[in-house]
Fold this protein.
Amino acid sequence: MATKNAPRIMFVHGIWMVGLEMSYLKRHVAKQGYETTGFVYRTITKSIPVNAEKLYQRLQSDGVETILIAHSLGGLLVAEMVRLHPDVLSLVKGVMSLGSPLKGSHVAKHIADRWWLRWGLGKSRQALVQGTASWEHSTPWLSLAGTTQVGVGRYLGAIKERGDGAVAVRETQLDGVEFAGEFPVSHTMMLFSKEVLDVVLGFLGKFDKPK
């Protein structure tokens, strides 16, 4: 049972993932006494607006204050949910995105421009290419970027600038979003990094309430 007097923590996975990839972070956050849960969605066969509606309904149904920790596409999903339903911020007390292409992804555009590859982005293609608008809410959002170039972008020859192999550092930075900095991890390995975990825990600690 959680002992922290803080909002619940919900982990939102990225594209081509099923939620289990967030287990390292989720497990270690739970060890610190936080209540944790996850949100699983279909990243290819369902569009971002459809998944955003599903996430909104989940949060409304649960009815508890929540902090969202989102990887990659998950950050765009959270942003779309808030765009569609800004009232959800009465429940969402904070957001942290890990390697999310908030300004859109050059690698995704590289894939989308090639008919023999674009199927891999499915119905999330438009969101990944375009990104999202600036964050104009008082709810804090912290963004983190990786700098180890190992990932689909490198293998496809789509890397144009400093990044994590799938998302450029610049693409994780957005007006209104606080930037946590750069970390020597790849797009996937940031989910298994002690250094990233420390930043996550530092962010969550800001929401602890006196008992």
The two ends are 16 Å apart (CA to CA). The mean pLDDT is 92. The chain has seven helices and six strands.
